[in-house]
Cysteine--tRNA ligase
Amino acid sequence: MTHPTAPLSARTPDPDIHLYDTLRGEKVRFVPTTPGRVGMYLCGPTVYSDAHLGHAKKEVAFDVVRRALTHFGYGVRYVTNVTDVGHLQNDADEGEDKLQARARLEQLEPMEVADKYFWSFQRDMDALNVLKPSINPRATGHIPEQIALIEELIERGHAYESNGSVYFDVRSWPEYGKLSGRKLDEQAEGTREAVREEKRDPRDFALWKRAEPGHLMRWDSPWGVGFPGWHIECSAMSLKYLGEGFDIHGGGLDLQFPHHEAEIAQAEAAGHAFARYWMHNNMLTIGGEKMSKSKGNFTTIRELLEHHDPMVVRFLLVGSHYRSVTEFSEEAFQSARNGYRRLTEALHEVERRLPNAPERDDPALRGKVAAHVEEFEQAMRDDFNTPRAVAALFGLTTDVNAALNGGEVGRPALEAARDAYRQLGGDVLGLFAQSAPERQDDAEVVDALMELVLKARQNYRLQKQYAEADQLRDTLTRVGVTVEDTKEGPRWRR
Ligand SMILES: Nc1ncnc2c1ncn2[C@@H]1O[C@H](COP(=O)(O)OP(=O)(O)OP(=O)(O)O)[C@@H](O)[C@H]1O
Ligand SMILES: [Zn+2]
């Protein structure tokens, strides 16, 4: 059995954190199994396409929970998986494997697809300042663990083999449905005839599927050659790395049924204590509809970051609560941009003044900073209420700006303000990644300089000073800037 072993932070673990537990249907006090330590599992991406902003909402939401728990003194082991097998195109145990379908389309090996989109996902998460997981297990790397769990379920009479596939017997497990509150009779059947014939009950779900001849991803098993069902990987890998009765399981609201319901049944019917708290994020919408690949109304993170500062994207996401819908629109972006700038300008002014600040104390400002820190922490203790936490940072900014506009401010108060921004906005909300504002500033400077350089080159050419114009262009080429002459005038790129 493994238990979280992340180092404890210096702060005494805060006993007053409350979170909304989907299983109990209410806000409850969070008490980890091992004092001071938290084991947390998040359902990760199925790596068959670039991630969109909806995926970012989920990743940022749970990254903030992790960061907040760390801030409040807990050692967090954060496990999130990579689904690289078994996720079929249709939830009812049918359709082609999503990776295999993509492999056919792109003429790649399924594992090439997995790696391509795994790295694409990592790049996006790095840009959004999502911390790397403590453990990032892949489903294809844990086939023996999944087979072992399926064998336990068969032994206990909760699963059965049928024609080379293995199904979970939902009628043998009365608790099935406890997370989503669905009664068995209400659950959709919707399975094709051939698959239905293999099942004792149409609502049984696949733990292992027989591989048809054209199926590329296949492994030996006690039931013949096949591949695991999608749900079993999360039960097997969370238990392996976090142990019995681990603390928090997270995921998107849309995963509650069938995926999370199945995860619970698989683990508990096999005799394992499963996650003790369940947290679900709501959806990112566009025009009131869930952003999703199948609807085609999505913007990939990569596309978005071509034009937007990743920290503004993150700021937009933390601006709404993880259990609320986030509506994505141009106006929401504009207001995130303005809000983020307001915070960073105040922070940068505080840091600019610090080296030459007088030693004088300003107890009034220090008191206000402390009050805003308290507001921020109270908001985060209350089910990780990021919009209230952001409001506390704005309150801080109003007071800091008033003091800065009023003249000199002493070092202790400036340091307190800086620490509040850096530790709360920076470490907890993950904003102010060092490089982002600097990259932004740099980009603005480079744009302005390039405009001047291109004007100078135009002037040389107008005055027929071709040697000078060419020399300018050669110098740019040497530093990796290409200039193209188009109908609309010269364009440059790096
Ligand atoms: N718009 C969204 N807002 C918040 N979370 C989302 C959103 N879309 C997807 N997710 C989360 O990411 C997980 C993986 O999503 P998935 O790959 O199914 O994306 P999708 O765009 O919904 O695809 P599809 O439309 O094909 O179902 C979802 O289960 C959900 O938890
Ligand atoms: Zn899962």
